[in-house]
Write a structure and sequence with these properties.
Layout lengths: L1 H15 L6 H19 L13 H7 L12 H11 L4
């Protein structure tokens, strides 16, 4: 019964006291986008990994703040991958 009470309070807080563009909503959208895109590229290995040759395409297809869909040239994506120290 206490859990239900706490749930209702948290839900009301979320509805009325957090701004429309809050961090939690953006995080949920980013995680959903990441999972959807990851599933497309990792189907061969049941979601555990993707091919090294698909990393650039994965980052390009990833939407939102996590991806590089706004990056126009391939050199910018290559530079970002080197900065992130992603190793195949």
């Amino acid at each position: 019964m206490v859990d239900l009470f706490v749930l209702i309070i948290l839900q009301q807080f979320d509805l009325y006291y957090l701004p429309d563009d809050n961090v939690l909503d953006r995080f949920k959208k980013d995680v959903t986008s990441f999972k959807y895109t990851w599933r497309r590229y990792s189907a061969t290995w049941d979601g555990f990994k993707i091919r090294a040759s698909d990393v650039k395409k994965f980052l390009k297809d990833l939407q939102g703040d996590l991806g590089m869909s706004t990056e126009k040239n391939q050199a910018g994506i290559d530079r970002a991958i080197v900065q992130m120290n992603i190793q195949a």
